[in-house]
User: Fold this.
Amino acid sequence: MSAKPWWAALLLWPGLVPMLAAPATETAEPRRSGLDFMSPALQTLQRDDSQNPAMLWVEDGAALWRTPAGTAAKSCADCHGDARLTMAGVAARYPSWDMSSGQPVNLGGRINHCRQRHQQASTWPNEHADLLALGAYLGRQSRGMPLAPPEDAKLTPLRAQGKTLWAQRLGQLNLACQHCHDQRAGQRLGGAAIPQGHATGYPAYRLEWQGLGSLQRRLRGCLVGARAEPFASDAPEWLALEAYLALRAKNMPVETPAVRP
Assistant:
């Protein structure tokens, strides 16, 4: 017999309907990282680099940083030097506006643009192991620094779209992101604590995945949990949500690579 998906338990969980029917209350400050809602053992797993399983991907990313790629046979380090010095704080500023393409990009998009423009290499698809590894390596250089979404008016429409999506009811369960993460953070759903939903540690290692994954993968899982049809992998809605979440978590410390249940 095949195992049921994790979200199937929601349909049978007796606390779901009362929770949705209960009056909503806004989450009080201060904002709290998802790390605060985890068990002491998982908190230790994230904080100790010798135990954090995501550090395996970070090491792969460090190797990719130094390895020539594409027909240009150039490495990231050829242009940017030592990432520990030149990339500190960079990951904390995404999504941002890309002047060359005239479009917003997240960190993965920036990596792919650099591969195309400067290395003359093919782009990596979403969730490609190398894209996640390099993203985790770059995110690691900003760990502990405050998220600093750019003060760029060109990003305003994108963030507004993300905020609308955050409040939009979706799926057969008729849930919006805000119903769990704004209005009922700290309560429990199916035995698990509901965090405030701050995207401070992606790419992140999730025990559920037994591997590293992007923020889009996590958002996709939430949509499936609400029994909603996920957006296409290249849909602009993902970037809109990411841009809004970056603004929502402004000044919170970067945790990449985070560990989550």
